[in-house]
Design goal:
Elements lengths: L2 H40 L9 E10 L4 E5 L2 E15 L9 H7 L5 E5 L12 E6 L7 E3 L5 E3 L18 E6 L1 E3 L9 E6 L13 H4 L5 E3 L1 E3 L2 H10 L7 E3 L10
Parallel strand pairs: 1-4, 5-13
Antiparallel strand pairs: 1-3, 2-3, 2-11, 3-8, 4-7, 5-10, 6-9, 7-8, 10-12
């Protein structure tokens, strides 16, 4: 009878340790993206070496996704795409992001990488919302390299009112929490278009949004969407943008 609390306590410590590891991973990804943004602006042409383009693969596009939070991890409803996409390389001894994604074909998974989201362009119903660095303490899902589960396509999933369509998939993504005391560029999240002032509430109150059952949105340090688009396609497309009051839209010319 004494062993049950011990096992339960061990599981609790393990869960807490895993949550801390996930948060550190997400913070590391955000820092890596921010560092690349700084270098790209200071030294044109250097960003390309920092990313990996996956050619003609099936992948998940999560750039404009909303996500359900469970136990400190976000589960995002993303779109299944085919073609070229870009990501941090995530190099390891056996390969990189592209080789991992390629091995997912027929094995029940794929990875989340980036391509230009059509719904965030003129005529679409999504926009890029800019959350100011000095006031934003909200949370967002960092989905670059997120793992996606093919079994969820066309199926119901907690946190979403309707079953997924056949071309939609759930991806597991770590959560990044903005810190106004250390952030230099702020972050951007995808939201509804035309712009809605009320949606800027998602730039704040990370504690409320990251509880189990909460909803957060995919995001990245400000300027990441423009940079990735340029590195993948050679130019920055026009995006629907919703800058916070007093904050201009951010892009790369």
């Amino acid at each position: 009878m004494r062993q049950a609390p011990t096992r339960f306590g061990g599981q609790g410590r393990q869960s807490h340790s895993t949550l801390i590891s996930v948060r550190r991973l997400s913070a590391g990804l955000a820092c890596a993206l921010f560092f690349i943004l700084v270098i790209a602006v200071a030294v044109p042409g250097t960003a390309k070496a920092a990313f990996k383009v996956c050619n003609n693969q099936t992948y998940a596009l999560c750039a404009v996704a909303s996500c359900f939070v469970l136990n400190g991890v976000s589960y995002c409803k993303c779109d299944v795409k085919n073609g070229d996409s870009i990501s941090l390389p995530f190099n390891y001894a056996g390969g990189n992001v592209c080789t991992i994604n390629a091995r997912g074909v027929g094995n029940g998974y794929m990875l989340s990488t980036y391509s230009v989201p059509p719904s965030a362009r003129p005529g679409g119903n999504k926009a890029i919302y800019t959350c100011p660095a000095t006031t934003s303490d909200g949370a967002y899902a960092q989905c670059d390299g997120g793992t996606c589960f093919s079994s969820t396509r066309g199926q119901p999933f907690p946190g979403f009112a309707q079953p997924l369509r056949a071309n939609e998939i759930i991806c597991s993504c770590p959560i990044t929490t903005a810190n106004p005391s250390s952030s230099f560029v702020g972050h951007q999240i995808a939201g509804p278009y035309p712009c809605q002032a009320s949606f800027f509430a998602n730039c704040q109150s990370a504690k409320a949004h990251t509880r189990t059952g909460g909803t957060i949105y995919v995001g990245a340090p400000t300027g990441t969407t423009a940079l990735l688009s340029k590195e993948l396609t050679g130019s920055v497309p026009n995006f629907n943008q919703c800058p916070a009051p007093g904050v201009p839209g951010v892009g790369f010319d």
